[in-house]
Design a protein that fits this description.
The chain has twelve helices and nine strands. The protein is an alpha/beta fold. It has a seven-stranded mixed beta sheet, with helices on one face. It has a two-stranded antiparallel sheet with strand order 6-7. A hairpin with a 7-residue loop joins strand 6 and strand 7.
Length: about 260
């Protein structure tokens, strides 16, 4: 065995990473909801990595409760993730995998495009994912924000547009371009405010197009679509960014923000 890795979150995505890490020779120490994290940290004070695979809604709570000895070893894989999410919890340089594969209950794993990974333990995660035939590539830290914004753009655009159109991403791209372009513009305005700096808009759109081509039959509206739109609208209101199209779709969906 090469190292011990704490795993916080043992759902579908946690199971995939656990399989990958076990396959590449690591010991996994699961941290369950019923397990006091401080207790595990006392038993495992210096894990190689603390991989947090909970959903985005639970991330802040988990990071706030993360023992200080584990913060420098954090690994994150959440959707809608940006640096403000980990710096607010005192995590300075996590390992981050921008996940471009999907695992749903009772369905086989589906790889859309290669998963970029940045941070101190990027080689470890790339090796692990590759060991179970999930394409992954290490990227430098200065490309991480671009990779995160591209993924966020894909998720938010397809989910929000899907509230109106349903269907697949290829149908969305082929038949509803004005809608897509409008949502993209408003989402990127919000992402720039959340990042606190201009983002590579062309690169983000290009990344979204690659994902469309990688899985053209992917459905547009996930189960979290309405919640994603609500978060986007709350951010826009906080930033005083005009988002007339997102607000219109939210009104159609019965959303009150």
């Amino acid at each position: 065995m090469t190292s011990s890795i704490a795993l916080i979150g043992v759902g579908e995505m946690g199971a995939v990473f656990s399989h990958a890490l076990l396959r590449s020779g690591h010991t996994i120490v699961p941290v369950l909801r019923s397990t006091p994290v401080d207790t595990v940290a006392r038993q495992l004070p210096e894990p190689e990595l603390v991989l947090v695979t909970v959903g985005e809604d639970d991330l802040r709570t988990v990071l706030d409760r993360l023992p200080s000895v584990w913060r420098a070893r954090a690994g994150l894989i959440q959707n809608e993730l940006l640096p403000r999410d980990w710096t607010a919890a005192g995590v300075t340089r996590p390992t981050v995998a921008v996940v471009w594969f999907e695992k749903k209950p009772q369905r086989p794993l589906k790889v859309i495009i290669p998963t970029p990974v940045a941070g101190p333990h990027a080689p470890l995660l790339v090796e692990a994912l590759t060991s179970i035939d999930i394409a992954a590539v290490e990227i430098p830290d200065d490309r991480l924000v671009d990779a995160l914004v591209a993924k966020n753009l894909y998720i938010l655009t397809t989910n929000i547009a899907g509230l109106r159109t349903r269907g697949t991403v290829s149908e969305l791209w082929r038949s509803h371009r004005p809608l897509v372009d409008g949502i993209v513009s408003e989402v990127l305005d919000i992402q720039e405010w959340l990042v606190g700096a201009p983002v590579d808009r062309e690169g983000a759109i290009g990344g979204m197009e690659l994902a469309f081509a990688g899985d053209p039959d992917h459905g547009t509206m996930g189960r979290s679509a309405l919640r994603r739109l609500e978060r986007a609208l709350r951010a826009a209101r906080a930033a005083e960014i005009p988002t007339p199209l997102l607000e219109e779709i939210g009104h159609e969906a019965g959303l009150t923000v």
